[in-house]
Structures are given as structure tokens and as C-alpha cells.
Amino acid sequence: MKLKIDNLTKKYSDKVAVKDFSIEMTEGVYGLLGPNGAGKTTLMRMISDVLNPTSGKILVDNIDKNDLGENYRDLLGYLPQDMGYYKNFTAERFLKYVAALKDIDKKIAKKRIEELLKVVGLIDHKNKKIGKFSGGMKQRLGIAQALLNNPQILILDEPTSGLDPKERIRFRNLISDISKDRIIILSTHIVGDIEYIAKQVILIKDGQLIKASTGDILLKEMQGKVWKVEVEEKDIVKYEERYQVVNIMRKGDKVQLRILTNHKPEENAIDVEANFEDMYMHYFNEKIE
């Protein structure tokens, strides 16, 4: 399957939320990475057919989604940023409710719900009320509801927001496990969510596509731009004024700075390997001088 986003634009009266966004996707995980307010949610809502674009097209195997109609929505699974739950519903009852909304046959839904509760690790909690779930359990239930119709396109908007590190890792592993035969678009501003599972990282800023590439290539392009320097405490401000300082670590009576710059900042600076956090800061904080 191929999902093509072709010059997608969304304008509001006083701003352009997404501008001329184009990309093609096939099976696998795509990490949509950008700061808050970058246009990620607007883009995801247009792909999810929740929001109509001002202009541009969304095509599946070269067929416009508008021509596909209900068949397009049958391909979709969507976990919005703020998923609404009925706190007095049990996990099983909630999934039955969502299955009915999606017009899934009751017999098929019953079997599917049992399978998905096992997949997301909630089978032992199926009769527990959602109001007593942790944040991670709610997100896993959200994944289950998005997978009820066995979608070929799964859209996850900031799915790990508010989760602790353990739940985030568990969630990430779950996404990786179910990504084999479907397109998964995962929107986030947390680099760790996509660093190890995304086949392609899509960088979005001010509603525009900045770059789309593999994580390895993005990091390779950062070579020669990340430096480690040991300085005196009194010199920290001077370096912060001149360079993009992404980390400060105190080591005894010295301070170790991690700096982004195109040129060696001083004689004793050491060129170090870039990580995803460096890449994120490079594209979404301040420009390297």
C-alpha cells in the first residue's frame, strides 16, 4: 500500500497551520517529529479524515481518498491526542461500544476484542473500570480501539504524552510489533519515541516539511556539528551567547558543555557523535551559526 500526501494545506482565518505538505509512505513506522504548535495534529486530523484540507490531496494507491469515501475510513485507525474515555466503562465494554460505532459485526467484534486485549496486555484487566487505569493502560486501550477494524493506516497523535519511561518503552515496543503490515504514523515531540522504531523520520516546523529521511542519515548529516568543551564556570554565559549549548555537565571544578556549531569552537574542543536530541535541537531550536 502507498499513502501519498500531495501539497496538503490547511488555512484558518488568521494563520496557515499546514502548508504544501507532500510525502509518500509505505508499510512501516513513520515518526512525525516537531515542536508543539508545528502543525502535527492538524496534519494527522486531515489524514484521519476528521478535518478537511483547504487544498491538496490524500491518495491511497493513487486513488483520491474522496473518491474512496467510506472505504477510506475503513482503512483507518486513529488514536487522537486527547482520547475520550467513559471512566465507568470496563475495558471490554468500551471496546464493544467502539466496535458498534464502527459497525463491526458482534461476533467478529467479540473475537477481535479478546485478541486485542491480549496484544496490548490488558486481558487480565478487561473487567476493570477505565477510571482506575493508569495513563499507560489507557493509551494501550486507545491502541486497541484504533486496531478494532484491523486498519492498514494507523495514526497516533502524541501517544506517549504523560507516560512514565517504563510505559513509554512498553508502548514503543507494542508499536514496533504491530507495524509489519500497516502504515503507522506516530506524531511526537519526544525523540525517544521514534529513535529506534521509525523507518523514516519526518521533520515538521511551522506547518512545513523540513526534511524526511532515515534516522541514520539524519545523524550522519550532523557529523562535525557536535562538540564537547571543558570550560570554567565563569565562562558558561559567554559560550551560551556565542553557541547553541545543548547540555551542561559539571565535572569537579570544570564544566563540560555540549555545543552545536559548524566549526570547531576552540582548540581543545572534541568532535563527538551526534544523537537524536542534538538533531532535534539543530532543526527546532536555534540555527547553527
UniProtKB/TrEMBL annotation:
Residues 3-231 form the ABC transporter domain. Pfam families: ABC_tran. GO terms for molecular function: ATP binding. Gene3D superfamilies: P-loop containing nucleotide triphosphate hydrolases (3.40.50.300). Keywords: ATP-binding, Nucleotide-binding, Transport. Belongs to the ABC transporter superfamily. This is ABC transporter ATP-binding protein.
